[in-house]
Amino acid sequence: MSIQQPCKRYxxxxxxxxxxxxEDNVYASDAMEAQHLAMEFNEELMQRPHSITAVxxxxxxxxxxxxxxxxxxxxxxxxxxCRFEARNQALGS
Length: 93
What we know:
The protein is of the alpha+beta class. It has one domain (about 10-90). Helices cover about 45% and strands about 25% of the residues. It starts with 7 loop residues before the first strand and ends with a helix.
């Protein structure tokens, strides 16, 4: 039986190949899961994981000027987290 951890909001900051800084937001149980989710849903991060400059836990209330891509990634992350938890339960972890 697994204990469900609450999801926290993380900002994943990275630089593209032109040196511009970007930020994606995901919900995850910890920083490592946040980094893996960002890499899973962002082709550039998947190809260049070393371009990640920071993984920061942020308050859920501070959506600020988050762009559409952040909202989309948050929703995809929630679905991925549910799949991940269901898979772990099926495997008996």
